Amino acid sequence: MPEEENKKEIKSNEKLIAGMPEEELIASGHRACAGCGSVLAVRHAIKAAGKNTIVVAATGCMEVVTSPYPQTAWKVPWIHSLFENAAAVASGIATALKKQGSDTNVLVLVGDGGTFDIGLQALSGAVERNHDFCYVCYDNEAYMNTGIQRSGATPQHAATTTSPAGKLIHGKVEWKKNMPFIIAGHSENVYVATANIAFPIDFYKKVKKGIEHKGPAYIQVYTPCVPGWKIPSNITIELAKLAYKSKTTPLYEIENGVLKFTQKPENPIPVDRYLLLQGRFKHLNKIEIAEIQKHIDDTWNKLLRLEETEVRI
Known about the structure:
With 313 residues, this protein is of the alpha/beta class. The chain has 12 helices and 8 strands.
């Protein structure tokens, strides 16, 4: 990162971090892996939601590491749902709170497997019915808790235990599912945003906005996984920054069906600088890297056109 750009980021973060609550609502005694991006996302999400919150968590990494019976890392009311029905459970809680005239927030925390795949039906129904909750998908791009199997969020060519990199097939065949657009397509009353754990203030502000929004909110936050991506535990944030700089993880909001970037990289980098730090991509050849680069560029240009024209999604 150029020195000037680095100074801007530090100054911006220092100013905004000063306004964040000091109280931690998830204890540091959890059992997440060293360098886990998802637990950082959970920490900032619950800070943004505040103490007056009920958390719904589906089966997954964050459920397992924060709630080993008889212990819990949570300092707010927390309920564990099945893998597939977190949004349905949140719908029931939100409806009951509304009947009671309560202003308690409902925050849903689910991984990409329980969002893109197993829980999609429940989430789709809840958004279509306009239930009032903030749904945060911590996206580590595979079913990490159950053994690093591919999910709908796994990028093309990434190696997992169910999409191995072999002589004939180099990792997952399909592109990553465009979940933010799928949710945005349900209704213009849903607030949709993407986030990246390397930019906690941007994420914090989006969760607060999602909590305050009257209706469903969906926020997808990019969270590197040390064992799943085969990376050292000390590069989580730097890798997440490279994902942003390579335009792999665009940061935007969709409100009333209209997309707006919340920030853009000043000096974009080639995607190979991001990919080749990860063991899950170590098998890539030049043709595959070029294919990924083209897909990223095409997606980025599409987002730019949507922002410029303000065409509703």
